[in-house]
Amino acid sequence: MNTEVGKVYLVGAGPGNPELMTLKALRILEKAEVILYDALLDSSFLEYFPSSSIVHYVGKRAGQHSATQEEIQDLIIRYSLQGKTVVRLKGGDPFVFGRGGEELLTLRKHKIPYEIIPGVSALSAGSSGAGFPLTHRGLSRQVLIMDGHTVLQEDTDWKWFAEFKGTIALFMGTSSIVQISKKLLDNGASSLLPVALVENASLKNQKTTVTSLGKIIEEGLSKQSSGPGIIYIGPVVHLIGENPELDIQGFASQGEEL
């Protein structure tokens, strides 16, 4: 029986396209004895898994049966205590809505050696693929990341959000975007504030839907696919257009050149 504890790697695989995986992530993956991968990865990732490795799909998707976080952590601990090299392959970056912090605390609790490999977050991949920046001189100097699952359940300062001078990125928010838009409008946000829904960031079937807070109240905002989506709220979304200077002047900060 192997009494030596194996090492665990929490690896960010990027937003879905394997070409956005880092060289270090690929090198770690190639030596993995056990791989636990989630739902946000394209099936082409399987080509990079060693044929000798033990592979577990532990994806989480809304409305579908999936492994619980506790079950995933139990698998990580069990295999590492068997002396195996374990890779927890996570979509995007492990520490951006990836539950990486929970797995990190579990590893520390059990005194299991680990290493964290950062990945390209869907946060930046989504905006880049759609053709607009997260920050832009005169429009946005800060980015706010929100969780659409819980923001309506918490004691949220909606006036502060409505007055936020930057880009709001909403993860897991398509089911709550109408309510969120109403909260923002009720607290002073402009009905013309542009909104983009980016689905399947970095993949061939990436799709971008552009609208505004006011139109969302009137028409809603629905996903066109079963893949993951990120919602961006802010004037930078106007930069998708071919002539952004004509669209963004009303949102520019006073005293700054665009």
From TrEMBL:
UniProt keyword Metal-binding, yes or no: no
Its pathway is: Porphyrin-containing compound metabolism; siroheme biosynthesis; precorrin-2 from uroporphyrinogen III: step 1/1
Top-level taxon in the UniProt lineage:
Bacteria
**InterPro entries reported in the protein's UniProt record:** 4pyrrol_Mease (IPR000878), 4pyrrol_Methylase_sf (IPR035996), 4pyrrole_Mease_sub1 (IPR014777), 4pyrrole_Mease_sub2 (IPR014776), CobA/CysG_C (IPR006366), Siro_Cobalamin_biosynth (IPR050161), Uropor_MeTrfase_CS (IPR003043)
Which UniProt keywords are listed?
A: Methyltransferase, Porphyrin biosynthesis, S-adenosyl-L-methionine, Transferase
Which SUPFAM superfamilies does the entry link to? Tetrapyrrole methylase (SSF53790)
Q: What is this protein called?
A: uroporphyrinogen-III C-methyltransferase
Organism of origin is Leptospira andrefontaineae
The gene name on file is cobA
